[in-house]
Structure formats: C-alpha cells, structure tokens
Here is the input.
Amino acid sequence: MNEEKLRPIVESLIYLAEEPVTVASMIELLGEENEAAIRQAISRLRNRYSSPEHGIEIKEIADGYKMATKPEHHAWVQKFLKYQTPSIRLSLPALETLAVIAYRQPVTLPEIQEIRGVNAAAVMKTLVEKKLVTSGGRKNVVGRPTLYKTTRDFLLQFGLKNLEELPSLDEYQELAQASLEGVAVVSGVESETGAEGPVSPRETAISASNTGKQSTGGQSAAESRKMWDAEQNPGGAGNSDRVPAAGDS
Here is the structure.
C-alpha cells in the first residue's frame, strides 16, 4: 500500500490504542514492505494535528505514538470530565445476559435463564443497578413476569445510535469467536455473582461480543437464540438472524 492508503489506517490505530503505538508494532501488523510509508504517514499526521485548528495532537511517548489533548485546552477538558460517567465494567456473565436482553427484548428473566442455562437473577440485579437494563412492563401470561429491555445508557456505553446498529447474529458469532481466539478478557471461570469484573464494554469487540460461549452447555449465544426461537415460534426460526427491534416480543 502507498502512504495515502496507509495514513487513515495508521491514524485509526493511534486513535484506538490505549498504550502508545510503536512503529515496530505497526510494521508487524501492516508488513515490513510498508515501513517507509508508515513512517511518512506518522510524520504527515503529526504535522496535520499540530495545526491550531485541531484540539488534539499525536505525541511521541515511550518510543510510540498516542493521541492526546493539547495543553492549551486542558482546563476545558478537566471541566468537561467532571460531568462524565466512568465506563462501566462488567463480568463475563453480565455481558452474556446483557447480550440476550439486547437481541430478545423485551424478554423475561425465566426466558433469559432458559437461553443461558443458568440462574441470572443476581446478574440482572447488577444490570438494573447500572441502568443498562430497565423493566418494560409485564408479559401477559400466567404470573405476569416482568419484561426487561435495554436503556439509553446501554446505547451510550456501547457507542450505538440505536438498536438497529447491533450486529446481525452471524456477525455477532464471528466477533465472539474472534474475541475467544484473541486475548483473553477474563482469566479463570467466573461465577454467577453479578459482581463487577475486569471486562468493560469499551474493551470488547462490540458490546457483549465476548459472550460467544454459554457458561454451561458449550453452545454459542446465537445458537441458543435460534433454538429458543424455534421452540417459541415454530416455523418462524428463519427470522432469528435479523436484529430484533425494540418492540419485538
């Protein structure tokens, strides 16, 4: 690739990385044959962001590069950060439960537990307390169980415009598989305590994309969803590959 094509890629990598991105890591990712173009792209980007029309810059830190706000704007940034809600950190069981709710909403707790195969009461309590999930009325069946749905805070935490931006279930499975084959986000086995864990929405490939396998049974969330659809809606399982709208039952 030439420098013009590499430049937006390099910019994306520097923007996304939590730690400074080294030239060596970019060369390893993009190929040794692109070393000169990578270095030129970094130089051009640094010159571009040094302009007064930009509020951020690309700083060289510890032999790597990272985007940062310019010192002259720090006072305004600090004022802004005082009003920001810190990123919510969730355990893997909580992410699994949240994924079921996002794709099946409105959905009852018994239905969630049937799909996941484990008790999700404690996890549900955590999600409600964190305002990622809320009640959406009651289902008109015996016992009238509470229906649950995601909230506006869920969209904010996962960077979604609306529920239509959720990936399809096929895409979801691919993301989940990639996550499982990549860096482990949770070490060991977590219990259904609903406690906060080392995983946050911003650290996953997509919100809830780390729920490729159930806590029990070894089935993927998407496979469980299809099985549940087939049982509840005989003859209509073919529709389970679409992203359900908020009003779907």
The chain has ten helices and six strands. Strands lie at 21-22, 56-61, 64-69, 107-108, 133-138, 146-150. Residues 22 and 63 are 6 Å apart (CA to CA).
